[in-house]
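Retry 2 of 3 after timeout on previous attempt. Resubmitting structure tokens to design endpoint.
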């Protein structure tokens, strides 16, 4: 899994763009927006940007059936 890092701290980003979240999940940007629209993946809007908290990605992955997590 690709982890995006903060330029200032060098640690993992806590908030990801929709494109970055899609990359973390290994899915398309369009499918990521579908997950956001359905409520399956949580996001926040800051100004004009839609951001996905890293913990929301972890929660979504944990909610998947075990067979889906393994692939």
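Retry 2 succeeded. Sequence:
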């Amino acid at each position: 899994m690709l982890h995006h890092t903060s330029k200032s701290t060098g640690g993992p980003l806590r908030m990801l763009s929709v494109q970055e979240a899609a990359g973390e999940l290994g899915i398309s940007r369009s499918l990521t927006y579908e997950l956001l629209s359905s409520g399956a993946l949580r996001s926040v809007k800051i100004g004009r940007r839609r951001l996905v908290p890293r913990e929301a990605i972890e929660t979504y992955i944990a909610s998947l059936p075990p067979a889906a997590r393994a692939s």
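Attempt log closed. The two ends are 12 Å apart (CA to CA).
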